[in-house]
Sequence to fold (447 residues):
Amino acid sequence: MRPEAVEHPAAVRLSHWVAAGAVAVLVMSGLEIFAAFPSFGGKIPQHDLLALPEAIRLGGWLGGALQWHVTFAALLMAAGFAYAVYEAASGNYRQVLFACRDLAGVWPMVRHYVLRAPKPVVRGTYNPLQKLAYTAALALGFILAVTGMALYKPVQLSWLVTALGGFGMVRVWHFAAMCGLLAFIPGHLVMVALHGWRNFVSMWVGTRA
Amino acid sequence: MDSRTTPGRRLRRRELLKMTPLAAAGLLLNASARDRIVGGGQELADRISAVAFQPAHLAPVFADRDVTPFERYPLNSYLVDDPDVDLDGWRLSVSGLVQRPGDYTLDALAQLPRIVQNTKHVCVEGWDVIGNFGGVRIADFLAHVGAVAGARFLEVRCYDDYYESIDMESARHPQSLLCDEMYGAPLSRGHGAPLRLMMPVKLGYKQAKYVTSIQVTSVLAGRRGYWEDLGYGWYGGL
Fold:
């Protein structure tokens, strides 16, 4: 196997699929946790903000959902940490992370995708819009991890809760970041579908061959 | 081309890789494997929580004006709001790894230094309120009854058959109270009269009400706590 034929290194593939599975579990168990107290304010008066169907929840009840949530949060944070170490050590982060110089390239890509304008010349592995999307997803994952830890240990991390505006606000940030991550997923799946089966398979096995 | 890159091996590896999502889904669909995985994850989270616990780090305390009004302080009971405790005949039975086991009255507790604090009560459901709590430090009471050095857990039993167990580090936290007063008055029957736990470093389900006995142990018996035995995390630390 020629090294340049490897599109996605093993560390990236592994962390990608761990993240894909864990995010699904975390969103569904998170909605079950939210359903136990579907509000962001104090106990009384309680406003039920959402009526969530059973089918998109996981865990059966709050206790079950919390077991799923802490287990897969630990798994996802471990995968995220391993991914960060790999990207930093390999230098690959340069092709993924959005930089200031990518800014000018975002709008031409939007025009290409939405208005069928001619495809701009893309330097590097990913185009500027793609880098923006990946960077946003990684940033949202980081925010979810930090706010999640603040919710799990609001006394040990009391300074963090204070900095984020209090316990109720941390729940709002955590929920909002989840919504942001959910917004990333349909666009990601559409682009994967548009780029065909071989592109998809390369995220499993590393190459298009 | 070395043997690692022969097409046969590559294909086998690719087929195996494609099987991994099926294997993962299979594990999670199997009920006993699933319970073992997520139960194990929670045990791991409990263990990390215990290591991360900072014994001298104080939970935030609040000004009187920030305290939730008493009538808006929620009542969450597991059986009934008032199990009809005989307040006059009440004693706190202390046993296990202590030098002075026996039955203690509220008057005996009153000999210890009194603590009054405005701290947060955080429910696992996601809500929280700030309450005013008075009582004595669990640490002072443990010294009073002579808890031995190797003791690791408190097993707490309640009048309404609720039960709890607490790790010694959290119990000895300077804000962890045997609480007999809320809002400057003796505990109401709904809030656990005459004695409840109030530990700002723990979630609400650890704050047992109507406490009748405390056993100091070095090993946790099978029954770890009412909600914990149904699936909540045992450590329940904040």
Summary: Chain A has eight helices and no strands.
